[in-house]
User: What shape does this take?
Amino acid sequence: MTTASAPTNYQLMETRLQEKLDDGTTRCNLCLWRCKLKHGQRGFCQAHVNRYGTLYNLSYGILSAIDVGRIEDKPVRHYKPGSRVMSVGSYGCNFRCGGCHNLEISWGVTALDELARGQSTAAYVTPQQLVETAQRHGAEGIAFTYSEPAVWLEYVLDVSQLAKQVGLYTVYVSNSFVTDEALELMAPLVDVLCSDVKSLDDKFYHDICPTSSVKQVLGSIEKAHQLGIHVETRTNIIPGRNDNPAMLKEIACWIRDHLGADSPWHITRFFPAYKLSHVPETPAEIMWQTHDVASAVGLRNVYVYDDKGCDCAESNSPVSAYLNGNPESVHTVKKCAASCCGDEGIVLKKYEESSDSV
Ligand code: SF4
Ligand code: SF4
Assistant: This one.
């Protein structure tokens, strides 16, 4: 069981979808930001950095959280129901939601800065070790969640390839602000996309990601469906933000028309967090009304979670508890193991000295 490219120790990994442009600039085509970066610059997600004209992922193999539980909690209901899945996340997201519950993980700004400085003590786990960990804990699949897997695609693909070889399924929990090219790479390897449909209002998306639009997100979800990935969608209803009944009905109609009347739609409750700490929890009535309206327009599998919000890692056991190793060995300082930068062995320290912006 091998992947061609997986290193045994932490190191920067070349970004899978990059275009090298003039003057050492690179464009990242993992997500729809399509960041154009010069030497020393990091993308919006902070997880990819241009070094001397090549783009690298900082977070390959770096884990922020692990948990093992029911696939229904992702939430995914129509793929391997009753099976247990190991959820894993890293650091980095291409959105900045005001109500995000996972800031330290999802935005991961501090953790990614530490990696960039060669000072991180986050766990490094090879794809093979991760698959073995899932098997050891009796999981039948691996879910990439907590952070945004679009900005961690190099690792997601390598893990998914190994998982497939040993009969484990994979789930990609995403905001779907992702390129067609990335979806095409994923399609042969990733089994399930559990995607947010946050709103059908462009302003809602602009507020969390100025370059995003409803059309782009829906386009990616539909593309994943057309590529044969099993797709389930989720809407977290936030009072006063995306709770307009007519719009919620439109989401139901869109799912029916583009993913099929049997396509599952998960309606989750908003719990106050971060910039939206003053916004109340979603009343159960709105959620159930939405369920009834969706059913009335012909959507047959609508699930309401009036006790559940996002897939948070707050109550997880420490990552080291799932790995074969004591916490000290898991959390040693991570310095890039690549030798391309000479004796220093800490490529980022060297590049930070010569770059003007990170
Ligand atoms: S993953 Fe997205 S946000 Fe991150 S560098 Fe690439 S295009 Fe930019
Ligand atoms: S809610 Fe999801 S998409 Fe939004 S910032 Fe948090 S992890 Fe990213």
Summary: Residues 238 and 279 are 8 Å apart (CA to CA).
